[in-house]
Design brief:
With 268 residues, the chain is mainly beta. It has 3 helices and 19 strands. Helices cover 10% and strands 34% of the residues.
C-alpha cells in the first residue's frame, strides 16, 4: 500500500489543499486547521451552516515577505496575513470547553466579511494546540492534541473504501467528501482500515483510535456546493451502528516525522 494523498485545510472548512509532503507533529499535520472562522459570539462557523467557506482557498504565500497565510476567493483580491503575535480571546467549538486563541485582526475580518457576505465573522489562530487534550472517552490519551480539528488531528481513509461508497451511492462520491488528512491506495478490501491497529508511513507511526462518525458536511459537494442526502443515506444502509454512520478512521500520532505522497504504508 502507498500514501496516495495528503490534504491540508489551513483554515477550518475552507477548500482542501493537497500537498506532496508534510510534517506530522504531536498535534497533527503542521499547517492543518490552525485557523478558524468564528461568529460575533466566538462560536465556530463551519461549512455546515455556511457552505460558501468551501470557495475560499487558504494556502502559504509563494512570495514570502513575512506572510504566513494567503486567502483567496472568487471575485475578491487575495489577502496575505502574518501569524498574529498579540492579543487573545476565547472561542468555542461544538459546545466544548472554550479555547484561548489569537485574533487575526481587523484586516482579515473585513476580508472574510466581504468574501462571505456576513458582517459578524472573524478569523482566529490556534497559538497553542497542546493546550487541548482530546477526550479520553473517545480513546485518546494525554499525548493526543489538536488545533481546530473536530476530533483527532489526523484522519485516514482508503481509496477502496471511497470506491465502495461511490458504487453504492446514487451520486458520485469522492474522497474529498470526507476531507481526510491521508488517503491510502492499494488496500486489499474496502474498510480494511477499520481493523488496523498501528500504521507506519515513512518514519511516522500512528495508532488507530476509532472509526469516524460522519456528519452533514459530507452531503455538500465540495465543487458545486450542492447539497443532497448522499453519502449519509448510503452509509445509513451499509455503515450504520450505534446510531451513527461511519467512514474513515481517527489516528493518534505515536512518532512524528515527515511523510510524502508515494510513501509505503505498513499496517498491523
Amino acid at each position: 500500500m502507498r500514501l496516495a494523498g495528503i490534504n491540508l485545510h489551513p483554515v477550518k472548512s475552507t477548500a482542501i489543499r493537497p500537498v506532496q509532503e508534510a510534517y506530522v507533529g504531536r498535534a497533527g499535520l503542521v499547517g492543518d486547521r490552525e485557523w478558524m472562522v468564528v461568529d460575533g459570539d466566538g462560536r465556530l462557523v463551519s461549512a455546515r451552516e455556511l457552505r460558501e467557506l468551501f470557495t475560499i482557498v487558504a494556502d502559504t504565500p509563494a512570495t514570502g515577505g513575512g506572510a504566513d497565510l494567503r486567502l483567496s476567493a472568487p471575485g475578491h483580491e487575495p489577502i496575505e496575513l502574518a501569524i498574529p503575535t498579540e492579543g487573545v480571546r476565547d472561542v468555542e467549538m461544538f459546545n466544548r470547553p472554550r479555547m484561548r486563541v489569537r485574533p487575526a485582526g481587523p484586516e482579515a475580518d473585513a476580508w472574510l466579511r466581504r468574501a462571505l457576505g456576513r458582517d459578524d465573522l472573524s478569523l482566529v489562530w490556534c497559538h497553542d494546540p497542546f493546550r487541548r487534550v482530546l477526550d479520553a472517552e473517545d480513546g485518546f490519551t494525554a499525548s493526543d492534541h489538536a488545533a481546530f480539528h473536530d476530533d483527532s488531528a489526523v484522519s485516514l481513509i482508503t481509496d477502496a473504501s471511497v470506491a465502495a461508497i461511490d458504487s453504492w451511492s446514487e451520486v458520485t462520491i469522492t474522497a474529498q467528501r470526507f476531507r481526510p488528512s491521508l488517503l491510502v491506495e492499494g488496500a486489499e478490501e474496502a474498510f480494511a482500515e477499520d481493523g488496523w491497529k498501528e500504521i507506519g508511513i515513512g518514519p511516522v507511526r500512528f495508532r488507530v483510535v476509532s472509526a469516524v462518525p460522519r456528519c452533514v458536511m459530507t452531503t455538500i459537494d465540495p465543487v458545486t456546493l450542492e447539497k443532497s442526502k448522499e453519502p449519509l443515506r448510503t452509509l445509513a444502509v451499509h455503515r450504520r451502528w450505534g446510531g451513527k454512520t461511519w467512514a474513515a478512521v481517527h489516528l493518534g500520532v505515536v512518532h512524528p516525522g515527515e511523510i510524502a505522497v508515494g510513501d509505503e504504508v505498513i499496517v498491523s
